[in-house]
Amino acid sequence: MTRTGRRIAYAVLAAVPIAVFAVFFVLPVSAMLERGLWPEGRFDPGAVLQVLARPRTGRVIWFTLWTSTVATTIAVLLGVPAAYVLHRLRFPGRGAVRAALLVPFVLPTVVVGLAVRELISTSGPLGFLGLDGTPAAIIIGLVFFNVAVVIRTVGVAWESLDRRPGEAASALGASPWQVFGTVTMPALRPAILSAASVVFLFCATAFGVVLVLGGVRYSSVETEIYLLTADLLDLPAAAALSLVQMLAVVVLLVVVGRLRAVPDPTVRRSTAAPVRPRTRDLPAVLVTVLTLAAVALPIGTLVAGSFRREGSWSLEHYRAMAGSADGLLQVSVADALEASLRIAVDATALSLTLGLIVAFVVTRRTRTRTGSRVRSVLDGFFMLPLGVSAVTLGFGFLIALDEPPLDLRASPLLVPVAQALVALPLVVRTLVPVLAGIDDRQRQAAASLGAGPVRAILTVDLAVVWRPLLAAAGFAFAVSLGEFGATSFIVRPAEPTLPVVIYRLLGHPGALNYGTAMAAAVVLATVTAAVILVVERLRVPGTGAW
Fold first, then answer.
1. Closest among 532, 530, 526 to 544, alpha carbons compared
2. CATH top-level class for 44-260?
3. Where in the chain are all domains bearing CATH 1.10.3720.10?
4. Cα 492 vs. chain centroid, distance in angstroms?
5. How does it sit in the membrane (predicted)?
C-alpha cells in the first residue's frame, strides 16, 4: 500500500471513534453548556459571571481546590515509596499486594465513600477521632481512591529505568541517597508530576466520594453541579461551574500531555529486574505496609459491618438483597447486580473496540511534525472524559439525545455507551505504551515476506497486544461496573445499576436499608477485586500506567 493509501486508511479508521465521541460526548457536553450560556437563544455571559460572583460558588471552588491539593500531596507521599517497593523490589506475594493496592481505584465511588464512612463513624474503629462529617473524611476518601494512580504510574516508570547510570554514580563514590537525588529522581520527576496532575484531576472531579462523605454540608464543584441540575434546575449556574471545570481540565491535560507524551514507536526502553529488599529499603517498606493497612482497614470494616445486625453476626443484610427494600426499589438488589454485569459487558466491548482503534492510530509512525501533532491531539482528545464532569455528561445526554434523529433517552444502549466513554481513557492508556513499543521493522519484515497490512497487524501486533488487551478489558469492566455519576441521570428506574441502588438505599433511613447497602457494596467490591487480580496477572512489566 502506498503512503497516501495508508494515510487515507488511517483517516477512515480514526473517523469511527471520532464520530462516536462527537455524538455521545461532544454533543451532550456542548448541549449542557448551550442550555446554560444561551438560555433564551442568545449568548448571555452576564448570568454566568453572576454565578461565579456568588459567595457560595467561591466557597465551593475553594473547597475543591484545597481538598484536592491536600489529597494529592498525601497520595504522592504514600504512593512514591510504595511504587518503589512494589515495582523495584522482589518479595513473596508482591503481585497480590500490588493488586490489593490497585483495587480502590476501580471501586465504585459510592463504595469507597461508604467504606470510609463506616470506618470513621461513631460506631466504627476510628470513630473516636471525630472525623465523621468533616473535610478530613473527604480527604481520606480521595487519598484511598487515588493512591493507586501514583503507585502504578510512578512504578511503571521506575521499572523502565536503566540501572547503569545509578551503578556508575555508586562506583564513583555516591551514597544511595545521592544516587536517588541526582540520578533516579530527575528521571522519575516527569512520572511523579504526571501522576500528581492526574490525581488532582480525579480529586477535583470526584463525585460519589464527596456526595457520600460530605452530604449537604460540604460540596465540591462536581457535587454542586449535580445539586444545581438535579435539584434546583439552575442550568446557568451549572453551566458556569462546568465551564470553569472544563477549562481547568484542559489546562491539566495539556500539562499531563507535556509531561507524558505519546511514546515514540522507535524508542526502546530497558526494564530492570527487581532486587531483594535491603536494609536501606526499610523506610519505603514501612510506608508501603502503612498504605496497605490504610487500604485494607476501610474495606475490612465495610465487610464486617455487612455481617452485623443489631449487635450480632447475621446474614440478614445479604438475604435482603433478594427483596425490593420495602417497595423502595422497583427491582431487587440481586436484579440490579445482574443488570450491572450485563451493562458492563456491553460497555467493555464498546470501549475496547474504540480504544484499540484509537491506540492503533496514535501509535503509527509518522515522519512529519504535523503527523506527530495530530497524534498528540487525538491522544489528548480521547482523554477528555477523565476530567469532564460525569454529571455534566449525564445531564447532557438527557438534553441532547431527546429529539429525532437522536431520540435515545429510552434506549437501553445509552447507559453502556456512557460507561464506555468513561472507561475509554483507561483502555487507551493501557494499550498505547504496548503498541508504541513494537518495532516497526517487524511489520516491514512481515510485509517483505508477502503479508498484507491486515495480515502484518495480526501477525506482529496481535501477538504482543493480546495480554494488555485482556487487561484493558478488565479495567473497562471494573470501571463500567462502578460508574455512578452519568449513570444516575440516564439509567431507567426499572433497570438500575448496583451503584445507583446502593446510593438510593443510603438516602433512606433505616438500619436494614443501610445494612443492605453495605452488603451490596461488598458484593460489588468482591467482583471488582476479582477482576483486578486477573488484570494484574496479565500485566506486562513496564506497561500499564494511566
1. 532
2. mainly alpha
3. 1-37+305-546, 44-260
4. 24
5. Multi-pass membrane protein
